[in-house]
């Protein structure tokens, strides 16, 4: 088996999730290559060394460019704030290395376009962290839709809401800067846009509205200095799909009581499917003639589930979805699959988000082909 050197940039929540996923993938899957945790980088050198030791990486770097230049690194995983995705990915692609980047792909459509073109020219495997699509229940939902079990799809209703910014006293962070993040649409809504495209298909036309509810936040925890906020706190949109289906989308990071409410209802001429990420091991299905909705529960008959549990009802979690995403990535690197979201597909998500922002600014329906 050939060795594949993993380089991880970032040590926050997503950095830890990636580290767990790489460790879990080599523990539970029969992979076509041997994963070597070659290097970890963080701007805080001491933290980089501490996390590298705790997570099993061979060495630590205080400069991300040193990690990309490291000859033992074949795959660069990027888990930094959004505005750093572009320079890091472009440097990795220039070095001819595969890239696994967290979402959203970039902070502008122009950057995303340059990244997908560079990936195409480099001829390397790329993936973007839309890990919710790797849930065995989401894969089952897509299979049911493609098999026609719901009939002709006529509507998609989607929502992704959390409440981690609901408190107006929550301090300013990099997520609050337009050039660094992009608001609730970029942070949460991008997952929902990717899910809508994955399950229903391309979107042709959009209309949208957004709102910044809390125009100022404390500069830091407990600070009396306030900083202005320009990013959206919540977004609502209407969608028209190329296959004739219509849809709605809403995303908010202010919605009290919700922690990971990525949810959808997809209706067709013969039935409805419903899902909520807060109950990620379930689908609700209604078919014409049924007395009511039935609950479909995840179990070992679904691809991917059995790697973690041989019994139904024992349930997968967020880190298992990330591990399934890593497995697909490794298989793609070995030339044995292409089911994940690459830079080209992630650019389509960014293009759709750009159409929504244009619709907000100009208060009109926007054809995605305009973007």
Automatic annotation (TrEMBL):
Give the InterPro entries listed for this entry. Gfo/Idh/MocA-like_OxRdtase_N, Gfo/Idh/MocA_oxidrdct_glycsds, GFO_IDH_MocA-like_dom, NAD(P)-bd_dom_sf
Gene3D superfamilies the UniProt entry points to? Dihydrodipicolinate Reductase, domain 2 (3.30.360.10), NAD(P)-binding Rossmann-like Domain (3.40.50.720)
Residue intervals of the Gfo/Idh/MocA-like oxidoreductase N-terminal domain = 5-130
Q: What is the name attached to this protein's record? A: Gfo/Idh/MocA family oxidoreductase
Q: Where is the signal peptide?
A: none
Write one Pfam family the protein is assigned to: GFO_IDH_MocA
Q: What is the lineage of its organism?
A: Bacteria, Pseudomonadati, Pseudomonadota, Gammaproteobacteria, Pseudomonadales
Residues in GFO/IDH/MocA-like oxidoreductase domain copies: 141-273
Keywords (A to Z) from UniProt: Oxidoreductase
Report which superkingdom the organism of origin falls in. Answer: Bacteria
Indicate the transmembrane segments per the record: none
